[in-house]
Amino acid sequence: MSTHPMSQPLSHPALSVADPELAALVGAEEQLQADTLRLIPSENYVSAAVLEATGTVLQNKYSEGYAGRRYYEGQQNIDLVETLAVERAKAVFGVEHANVQPYSGSPANLAAYLAFAEPGDTVLGMALPMGGHLTHGWGVSATGRWFRGVQYGVRPGSALIDFDEVRDLARKERPKIIFCGGTAVPRTIDFAAFGEIAREVGAVLVADIAHIAGLVAGGAHPSPVPHADVISTTTHKTLRGPRGAMLMSRASHAKAVDKAVFPGLQGGPHNHTTAAIAVALREAAAPSFRDYAHAVVANAKALAEALLARGYDLVSGGTDNHLVLIDLTSKDVPGKVAAKALDRAGIVVNYNTVPFDPRKPFDPSGIRIGTPSLTSRGLGTDRMPLVAEWIDRSVQAAAKGDEDALAVIRGEVAELLAGYPAPGLATD
Ligand code: DSN
């Protein structure tokens, strides 16, 4: 498979000697990420600088506590690293308080429960099959077992959040916490509407912006800051940072949030991750990141238009953000069959339920795609018709079991991508 010189896999000299087997796997993954069109909307390519920060000696250090208040000595540098990350988060998102220690999105959300609810309390969140997240009170999650999860959804037809339902449920159930945000929500989240409902019923509003954090930072999605009490986010999706998370809040909630993360839920923070979050936030503060965020949305809209033109049914009829949810029912190809065929064609997506899906989550009707990664590689709206064409040809090939057609597409994908080197994979 051809690869552009700028996308040659990085070398890992020490790893190659110490553990050639593992080094080979890392190299293979680098090659895969270089050669495939990665459309999973929660994934991205981090910069070489973010990648370097995650591989530093900061990972050798234990730092339970917070800057200036640690349970271990030797924090001369770590305190400064964490303070940099915190201050940058506050500046980028315009928040009064930031905690950069949550290990990832699920622990961050669990810390919000710990801070503002007691086991058995009622929480209101979007149902997983409607686009919500497991940790918003869904039954199989600890959050749905240890708390009383009440779930809202979207309207049949429009697939937009049903705010009458949200308000009615909030008034009836008086939840301690209301979660908004999700993992398969292609439309702008109306934080003001959620904020009004939360205030009316005295609930804490947690805005989970994991998917759209980069869009918020870059001004391509409204900010939840004036409306939400707490903002939860991962740092590795549109924000283009390392695998990690943050909780942000008003100053009045700072103590509760910090106490919940440590010592409530976690031990020592992952300092190498904190450092990489700081680097990513520095990048997110640059003017070019605004261009990136807007380009992600422009690409998603162009891709949605091109798919609609090819007769695809899109949940909610399109997108306002980075994500497009395709309902393949009318194409007579189950989501999982399509996702696996696309994978063989070098286009990486995930199968996904669509609202009111008659099929099961492990074999649903849809696929979920997004544009953060391809935008990081520099693909623009002019390329989206071709991406839609590849998706369409792959779905048709899946329906016919035409493996040769998938192999042809895989070659075309790699050839195009060779001209768009991926950040972090370049040898520059
Ligand atoms: N797993 C993430 C996603 O893909 O959306 C959410 O946690």
Automatic annotation (TrEMBL):
It catalyses: (6R)-5,10-methylene-5,6,7,8-tetrahydrofolate + glycine + H2O = (6S)-5,6,7,8-tetrahydrofolate + L-serine. This is Serine hydroxymethyltransferase. Signal peptide: none annotated. Keywords: Amino-acid biosynthesis, Cytoplasm, Methyltransferase, One-carbon metabolism, Pyridoxal phosphate, Transferase. The gene is glyA. Its cofactor is pyridoxal 5'-phosphate. Homodimer. It comes from Streptomyces auratus AGR0001. GO terms for cellular component: cytosol. (6S)-5,6,7,8-tetrahydrofolate binds at residues 128, 132-134. Catalyzes the reversible interconversion of serine and glycine with tetrahydrofolate (THF) serving as the one-carbon carrier. This reaction serves as the major source of one-carbon groups required for the biosynthesis of purines, thymidylate, methionine, and other important biomolecules. Also exhibits THF-independent aldolase activity toward beta-hydroxyamino acids, producing glycine and aldehydes, via a retro-aldol mechanism. Thus, is able to catalyze the cleavage of L-allo-threonine. Its EC number is 2.1.2.1. One of its GO terms (biological process) is glycine biosynthetic process from serine. One of its GO terms (molecular function) is glycine hydroxymethyltransferase activity.
